[in-house]
Specification:
Strand order of the largest sheet of chain B: 2-1-5-3-4
Largest interface: A-C, 39 and 39 residues
Chains: A alpha+beta (about 130), B alpha+beta (about 230), C alpha/beta (about 600)
Number of domains of chain A: 1
Radius of gyration of chain A: 17 Å
Strand order of the largest sheet of chain A: 2-1-3-4-5
Shape of chain A: elongated
Largest sheet of chain A: 5 strands, mixed
Oligomer: heterotrimer
Helix content of chain A: 40-55%
Radius of gyration of chain B: 19 Å
Strand content of chain B: 5-15%
Order of helices and strands of chain A: HHEHHEEEHE
CATH topology of chain A: Glutaredoxin
């Protein structure tokens, strides 16, 4: 058995930091939520590559509290692949016609930086339901 | 020395004494069955229960095992205590009606009926035999097996014991088998012959067979109201 | 740590495991891999979620969607629809009884939303076999605080002020017990965790040990610092193999990481733990009997005083507390005594875990603040009685407790109010009964349990339970006499008075409470020779109602003793001497033509 290092009090806090993503995901909390639309149209247009790119960026940046989820078709099939970025207490922002590179830009500028990438934005806010 | 109150009297006993030791020292009578001076107290028969505490916090404890405590309040003969003692005798009689010790106790403490079907187990599981075998005879040849209603006394794995020296101490000390009650119908009923103060046994035997010979304790104060 | 976008939390408490949750987990892992999602989705086996009625259970986070009653065949659909396409699967969700729409999120389900999780805070969200996950959710933080910043007296004061009372049943103030032991000068001192949990229907401690074993370990280290103990024992009944396994893993991981053993967290404090297995006796849950069992002797209770805090394991000062009590301790140290004081009632602080079982829609484990009413638990969290039957009674506190009737449904639950009503908090088992339950039969069940489990030392307990059982059994067989009730009450009261330990001292409760609230049922059995609930087989008989029988032969085929005669299209009839009252005929009959009559109706004819 490999000799494990005995923990000190500071180590407990470090472990807690490292596993913070665990806490956020398991409790369903996060500061932002990104939905990659994966209806049949989305997947056909390459949504899985968008997903991989997004997760890759999250890993690289080592952020812990971004929730990534999927959903079905958003309705605008010829703008797929699409992704929606939602910050707490802010209207959702829909991005369309994505490529892995565009997803990376959105991640760095909008999700990390807080600034919408206006030339890639399709719409802001949700549709009204009658 | 520990000071406490027993039946309103202030009593002083040495450290390590039990309530039973204190009572006996001061001449207060507490009935016992599974207690024997030469053996460790067991506290199983519950005959020696006394009431301790005051107000809402009173409870019954076996005096043979309860250590004397500074400032304790003890009462040895309350209605609650006697209701318990009489029920214990009734329950034990239902197990071994043929025991003279139990029949005598029934008469003495005015237990006149057994409301449970008789079992004729012979053994009342008081543990005197196991303790004398272990503590005085150093053999530990017999012990308790199982628990609850399956409890019994036997040798390990019910096999013939190699450590038993056939000394007979267990038979000597057993309250159920040391003396068989000689009263007529003793195996199936409660005799109570002595209660009527008529020496019924004299109709059958030459000698008086019962407790009345025991230094004149008539027990009138513990009779039930009929 | 790898960042997954979704976690599939598969409930792996014993209840769900016995429904096949490990197979579900395997299937999920396979399907996730098949879809190439293994780097995005983590499948985790957690401890018991509490909603055992609905196992196997999977919780999908961060969406918070609750899936239940899963089968292996459901897995591919779940993975494709929910994880790939983001469309939660409606048909796998929970639909409340008597309703049509599913409730997708766990936090909206009635069963969960009224609970207040403190001891069970980690249930269903961590893998109990991974110490990092326990630490992630503030684990061992309280222990670090206690070992580095607090004094033993400070810890005891905190526990004392919190008002924490022992959760094993007696409700003795934990702080007082610790203070008494801390005062003792002799060494070494010991700690024991009582995981014997013998009450029928109780599985709170099992759940805590399976779902969050580190909480117990952390509590014990804190306790060890408070009273000055150097060694502790966790006593787990051997009927809990999963709990034994998880605690063993937890102890191993804690030792590896320097959180148990010598020089814990580098603070210089030494404390180690060992597991001791129980051997199948209910009485070994009594603290002095448990100590005897740990010492390797037969589990028989001893006279107290001396109390274990003065003279316990091997004659040394020992503190014994229940699993739930130990698991509450880190929460109090971490969040403060004042926080704990804010929950519960005047005399009973904090929360309590109850196992809600019996005739209830939502069977499972619930943690609620003290002071909640029975009605809220039975109808709110529990979802009411199945088939809309009438509530009759709830048995609280196991064989030492009592049955409370419908008129007490608004009773707030705390130690004192339950004792005043004749029941007892006990370990927290709650068995709900409907109008088809016979209270005499229930008394008989518990007395049978007690006569088996009595250690046998005291005449009052051993003979008392046997004779009470004998009398009640006769009553259920129609042999009861009028004098029986007075005799039962006398015997029950004396058994309580004269016995040495808690088992005997509460052995009279099953009879005393059922007689107090359901005397009419006993009288029906004795005087009318009738079982109103239709349970006691000797007091009921089955007859075919001629006007409804169509001669379909269904009952005849179902009868195991060939007690039914009749040919096709001919009215059947039951031969009473051959009938064993199993009820199979009634269940098989599609025309409601078999009636269960009470014995008395026959005599009138």
């Amino acid at each position: 058995m490999a000799a494990k290092k005995k923990l000190r009090i500071q180590d407990l806090a470090k472990i807690r930091e490292k596993t913070k993503s665990l806490m956020t995901i398991r409790e369903g909390e996060g500061r932002a939520r990104v939905t990659v639309h994966m209806g049949t149209c989305g997947i056909a247009a390459g949504a899985r590559d968008i997903m991989d790119a997004l997760l890759g960026e999250i890993d690289k940046a080592k952020v812990q509290d971004i929730i990534v989820t999927t959903s079905g078709c958003a309705g605008l099939c010829n703008a797929e692949p699409m992704a929606t970025v939602e910050f707490k207490n802010q209207p959702p922002v829909k991005y369309g016609c994505l490529t892995p590179e565009k997803m990376q830009k959105i991640f760095i500028q909008h999700i990390l930086g807080g600034q919408m990438v206006t030339d890639l934005v399709l719409a802001v806010g949700s549709e009204t339901m009658y | 020395m520990i000071t406490f109150r027993m039946n309103g009297l202030e009593v002083k006993v040495e450290e390590g004494s039990t309530l039973l030791d204190a009572a006996r020292f001061y001449g207060l009578e507490i009935p016992t069955l599974c207690y024997n001076e030469g053996l460790t107290p067991y506290g199983g028969c519950r005959l020696c229960v006394v009431e301790i505490g005051e107000g809402l916090r009173t409870k019954l404890v076996s005096s043979c095992t309860y250590p004397a405590e500074e400032g304790l309040v003890v009462r040895t003969d309350t209605t609650r205590v006697w209701a318990a003692r009489r029920m214990m005798i009734e329950l034990m009689l239902a197990m071994a009606p043929g025991s003279k010790v139990l029949q005598d106790m029934a008469s003495r403490f005015n237990v006149t009926r057994v409301r449970f079907p008789l079992r004729n187990d012979e053994c009342i599981l008081c543990g005197l035999c196991t303790r004398i075998c272990a503590e005085q005879m150093d053999a530990q040849a017999i012990g308790f097996q199982e628990r609850g209603h399956k409890r019994k006394i036997s040798t390990p794995f019910d096999m013939r014991s190699e450590t038993c020296r056939l000394c007979g101490a267990c038979m000597y000390i057993c309250p159920a088998c040391q003396l068989r009650c000689q009263g007529p119908n003793a195996e199936t009923a409660i005799c109570n012959g002595c209660l009527t103060m008529e020496p019924t046994c004299l109709e059958h035997y030459d000698d008086l067979q019962c407790w009345m010979y025991d230094a004149g304790r008539c027990g009138t104060c513990v009779r039930e109201k009929t | 740590m790898k960042h997954y976008r979704a976690h599939l939390l598969v409930c792996a408490g014993t209840g769900c495991v016995s429904c096949g949750s490990f197979k579900i987990k395997e299937a999920l892992e396979k399907e996730v891999k098949k879809r190439d999602l293994q780097d995005q989705v983590q499948v985790v086996a957690t401890g018991c979620n509490g909603f055992c009625e609905r196992g196997p259970i999977v919780l999908v986070q961060p969406d918070g969607i609750f899936y239940q009653l899963l089968k292996v065949e459901d897995v591919p659909l779940l993975v494709e629809e929910h994880l790939l396409k983001g469309r939660p699967v409606k048909k796998l969700m929970y639909v409340p009884p008597a309703e049509k729409q599913p409730v997708p999120k766990m936090k909206d389900i009635e069963f969960f939303k009224h609970q207040r999780l403190i001891v069970l805070r980690n249930r269903g969200r961590i893998d109990p076999e991974k110490i990092e996950e326990y630490i992630a959710f503030d684990g061992y933080e309280a222990m670090a605080k206690a070992l580095s910043e607090m004094t033993p007296e400070g810890i005891i004061d905190e526990i004392l002020f919190s008002g924490l009372r022992g959760r094993g049943g007696a409700g003795f103030p934990t702080g007082k017990k610790w203070a008494a032991c801390a005062k003792e000068k002799r060494a070494p001192k010991y700690l024991i965790c009582n995981g014997d949990e013998g009450d029928p229907g109780a599985f709170m401690d099992r759940s805590v040990l399976e779902a969050d074993p580190h909480a117990v370990l952390e509590g014990m280290v804190i306790g060890a610092k408070a009273i000055g103990a150097s060694k502790g024992f966790i006593y787990i009944r051997h009927e809990y193999p999963l709990a034994l396994k998880r605690v063993e893993i937890a102890i191993g991981q804690a030792r590896e990481n320097g959180l148990l053993g010598e020089d814990i967290l580098g603070t210089g404090f030494d404390f180690d733990l060992e597991i001791v297995q129980g051997a199948g006796a209910f009485v070994s849950g009594e603290e002095t009997a448990l100590i005897a069992s740990v010492e390797g002797q037969i589990a028989m209770p001893q006279q107290r005083p001396p109390y274990p805090a003065q003279k316990g394991l091997w004659g040394k000062p020992t503190v014994i507390n229940n699993v739930e009590t130990w698991a509450t301790v880190p929460n109090i140290i971490r969040r403060g005594a004042d926080w704990f004081q804010g929950l519960g009632t005047e005399t009973s602080k904090g929360t309590k875990i109850f196992s809600l079982v019996g005739k209830i829609n939502n069977t499972g484990l619930v943690e609620v603040p003290m002071g909640i009413t029975l009605r809220e638990i039975v109808y709110g969290i529990g979802g009411g009685i199945p088939d809309n039957r009438e509530f009759k009674a709830v048995q609280i506190g196991g064989p030492s407790g009592g049955c409370l009737p419908a008129k007490l449904l608004d009773l707030p639950i705390d130690y004192e109010s339950l004792t005043a009503a004749g029941a007892m908090m006990g370990s927290g088992g709650m068995i709900v009964m409907d109008d088809k339950t016979c209270m005499v039969d229930i008394a008989k069940y518990f007395l049978n349990f007690l006569q088996d489990e009595s250690c046998g030392k005291c005449v009052s307990c051993r003979e008392g339970t046997q004779r009470m059982y004998e009398i009640v059994k006769d009553i259920t067989e129609g042999k009861g006499k009028e004098s029986d009730l007075a005799l039962l009450e006398e015997l029950a009261q004396i058994t309580k008075d004269a016995s040495l330990c808690g088992l005997g001292q509460t052995a009279g409760n099953p009879i005393l409470t059922t007689l107090r609230y359901f005397r009419h049922e006993f009288e029906a059995h004795i005087l009318d020779k009738r079982c109103p609930a239709g349970v006691c087989t000797k007091l009921i008989r089955y007859v075919v109602l001629a006007e409804k029988c169509t001669g379909c032969l269904s009952c005849k085929k179902a009868c195991p003793t060939e007690a039914i005669t009749g040919t096709l299209k001919e009215v059947h009839s039951i031969i009473q001497t051959k009938c064993i009252k199993c009820g199979a005929c009634r269940e098989a009959c599609r025309f409601e033509a078999i009636d269960q009559q009470r014995e008395e109706a026959i005599q009138i004819i």
